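User: Some background: our group keeps a shared notebook of sequences we're curious about, and every so often someone picks one and asks for a predicted structure to add to the entry. Today it's my turn. The entry only has the sequence so far, pasted here. Could you supply the structure so I can complete it?
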Amino acid sequence: MALSDSVTTCLSPPVHYVICKLGFEKKDTYDINNILSENGEVCWQAVTEHVCYLESDQSVDYIKSIRSLGPVCESVNLHFKSLTKEQFVIQYALWFRWTNYTELFLEVFDVLQYTQTTEVALGLMKLTSCLERALGDVYLLIGKDCPFLLRDLLASEQLAIVFGQAVMNVLRVFIGSPYGLNLRNVLWHGFASPQEIPVKYCAMLLFLTAGLGQLLQTYLLQTKCILVHRPYVIFVSLEELDVFPGKYLTISKYLNHETLSIAEEIVKLSSFVLKTMLPFWMAALTAFKQSRYADCVILLLPQLEVGLRLLFTTTNQCPNRLLTAEVKFLSKVSYDLMLAKHLDNEVVNQLPAVLEEPAMASEFLWDFLNHQQGPRIRDRLSHGEINLEAFPREVANQIVAFAITLLCRFSDEDMFAFKEHMVIKPLMNCASCYRSRFHPISRLKKQVLECMKSIHLWPELPTVPEEHIQTIKGLEGNAEASTLILMISEIISQLQQYMPQNCCSSDDPINSVLTERLLIELCDTCICTLYSPRPVLEILVVLRKISTQCHQVSEQVIASTELRYKQWMNKTLRSRQRHNYLRMLNSIKFLSPVLRFILVLITLELVNVHLVCRKNPFDYQQYLKFLKSVLQYTENLVTYTSPEKNKWDETMELTNKALIKIRKISDRKLMLMQLAT
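Assistant: Of course. Here's the predicted structure to add to the notebook entry:
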């Protein structure tokens, strides 16, 4: 890991030339009045004439364009430096309103005045993310589904209609195209150190954003359209993100001034940190101390990527990938590749083995950055989907704590005292036993337990006396319900050997087995979520749908029972409604064990199918067909138990047919479970 000291840049020679030198080759002095009118409007024609095109296909010649625009950018930078804050606000603030975040652009102006390289890089990352979000809002004036990638957004016909193709080509010189300066990507992926981003490019993007606001105002006046801003993404269930420092401990207690001071010392010594990137790390910790949590995370995420890329390239013996790759490789050196099971040549990725505890980094990173139901922090920050002013400390806590564990994990032995420090050790211990929270397997476990809690509310629901139910013709013997319960008992008896023995009783299989305790035991089974095989992921989709349908049935039963009881007591039910209500009360007696049985069944499927897929490949399509038939049953159950249908007799018939089918193939299922053991 001595490489962290020797690396002076993460920009490959061609990319370094384009960003750091190309725009400085022309020494001409450019008059700002050429591109700025007396009334403060951007003269776009004068700007766009600096974009050059290839003779062969009339596509943008990025090399010549960057060289030509260099003096223009310097002129804009000097112009902004000549303005006071008050002058800048008067002349430009109005034109940033279309971004829905005027304050950010005023903040970037402040940064330009002091030319602190780290702050300029941070300002540029925030500016590009906000600009992308605003351009997406403009796209939706005409288009429907906004492109996810900035390069596709800038190349879209919709933005060309609003701003003009020539204007969009200017933007693509600076951001969005891997052939241009590509400032957004080299910063957000951690390739550029603070001193490698020329201040004048940040100034130019600030200037261009104001000019876009002027063009947009003209378009809106002509078309009578109204620009609507999409709402920001809000992190919900923040308690699910509470990983560090562990159960019963408060993270804020540990990320105090003492811990952050220790972290600053570790950063200086850790082999996980490239020395050229040290200013970013220090600025991130400073931002956290100042309660600037969004800034802290924006600065840290690219640096975590740099550190992991250093490990990745070292362990996989591909040191060239530590540098910004050329166009054809640029997208392949980020988290996606580093967290993959195989490299693009099908060679096994060695990074998880080097991490020793894959959960420490891989699972955490997948959870917080990649899994669709996770917070996807990097995506949402870099694409401008989050309100930076309201960024939650809870999220920053976890990223900072995780970063500290990586700094300690990849450090020399002489840092033993730091690792054993009373505020650092709990973080290390927690990281070493981390389990995924947002993988589909983890989400299914959560769904199943939440559904069982809902079903457990049924006995507490208000109900009419039993004698009222017994007066309904056709319910006296309740033989059909007894048959259903018997079938469930038979199937449970077959499956019991594959369940935790401390949760089972042969005397009363229904009430002793189909319990929340059993589900908790099953869900506590440690299942490897990293690199789940494709069959597992496909099966998980169906299992999660089954669980969702079961939960909806439970919620419908609760809502209908409470409503009908209230109407019964108020004597507002008609004769037929009273009869149907009593049938519902009778039906839910058997429906509760049926739903509990399905939850236990799909949890067993989760545990055993995962093991089978990893150990013995099998024809999962036929197995998937069975699960889809169970899904079909639960979907029909949702329909029949809905307030609109209230088909309780049909519910019993439907359940009988479904249980017969499950019992018929139970032998086949036992074979599957035997394969897993």
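Suggested note for the entry: The chain is about 60% helix and 0% strand. The two ends are 42 Å apart (CA to CA).
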